[in-house]
Amino acid sequence: MHATGAARPRTMLVKHADVLVTMDGARRELTDAGLFIEGNRIVAVGATSELPSTADEVLDLRGHLVMPGLVNTHHHMYQSLTRAVPAAQNAELFGWLTSLYKIWAHLTPEMIEVSTLTAMAELLLSGCTTSSDHLYIYPNGSRLDDSIAAAARIGMRFHASRGSMSVGQKDGGLPPDSVVEREDDILADTQRLIETYHDEGRYAMLRVVVAPCSPFSVSRDLMRESATLARQYGVSMHTHLAENVNDVAYSRERFGMTPAEYAEDLGWVGADVWHAHCVQLDASGIALFARTRTGVAHCPCSNMRLASGIAPIRRMRDAGVPVGLGVDGSASNDGAHLVGEARQAMLLQRVGFGPDAMSAREALELATLGGAAVLGRDDIGALAPGMAADFVAFDLRQASFAGALHDPVAALVFCAPPQVSLSVINGRVVVRDGRLATLELAPLLERHNALARSLGEAARAS
Ligand SMILES: [Zn+2]
């Protein structure tokens, strides 16, 4: 008998994974297991023997660990053009920013698109399937549309944050006056982006986020009006907060409040808000965030690189603050690897708070369920029926895992961070056999490196 009428969704069967980490309510880890997928969603998870035996595409993942795609909650992808810049290699936040703003002032739309593709390629190969990006500098006609185009091209699930800076040096802010925008323009462009691109539906591949850069680069008014705009459209809000002691000192001096008090005063707390860093969030700030379900993007590598301190993630988690992981921009964490970030999160909590401060499994939970919660999503971060078909596979048969296969899940975090062999996003294969399936990496990197060179030359000539 032939089916007629509407086409049935394409199916995919994953079978024989050595271990499948579900991150479901019971945190089940299944052996010789797999998934059955229809279109862009998971319909069955279980032992290989319990799944259908065939599908349009069958992936035999013997020798692999399969887990939900990782979620990155904080990044500045354009910074991939300015990694390891000598003048910014050994500075803390404010000094680091001051030496880089001058270079970033020469960014072009092509640089935004190409660097976003490069940053996404790097993240995808590390196991990340959903990322946010915080773009807050728009020189020379650059637009958030340039990043959005990149995400669509490479096939990554994307939360595009419309960042902004409006208080330049002449008004007591940190950025040079040449890279700040007028507040009316910022709000109008943010509204345009939401209306053009934001998808609030389940399995959305693209959401828009309202994201003034930080308390030291925008005004109180812009923070308040951004919150009003975001809530009018039901989109999330994101900014940097309490990153280091100078950031806290600026807040006390200029606003007479701690960063957490300032956020509360502006309406910047709630389940629709997440703040990057919060290294210096105090006890009352942690209680406030827990009470209001305000999220935190923890970026351990960046915090170490800029010597910002050790974020009190153990205390936040115990209090009930939603916490996800972020690699942060490539100029303050020059290696964006999300499993690597989970590893550093685990290790850094131990440095700060003792050997039992974070387990490998909790670090993986931050990287999946934690990130999903922070981004306001309940359709990613776990492998269960009804969830989006976003999953990755790591080959356990490599030297770095040798001797650790009695506990491959912990090994993923304890051993050297691996590259994925497979990544599926929204039911589509984006990485196959360890290689990007959606674009050619070599010419992309060649173009990226040429643009990085010309960006450096433009900055030196100015
Ligand atoms: Zn950042």
From TrEMBL:
Residue ranges of domain Amidohydrolase-related in the record: 65-430
UniProt keyword Transmembrane present: no
Identification of the protein by name: 8-oxoguanine deaminase
Family note: Belongs to the metallo-dependent hydrolases superfamily. ATZ/TRZ family.
Enzyme class: hydrolase
GO molecular function per UniProt: 8-oxoguanine deaminase activity; deaminase activity; metal ion binding
Position of the signal peptide: none
InterPro entries tied to this protein: Amidohydro-rel, Metal-dep_hydrolase_composite, Metal_Hydrolase, MTA/SAH_deaminase
The enzyme's E.C. designation: 3.5.4.32
Organism this protein belongs to: Trinickia dinghuensis
Domain of life: Bacteria
Record's keyword terms, sorted: Hydrolase, Metal-binding, Zinc
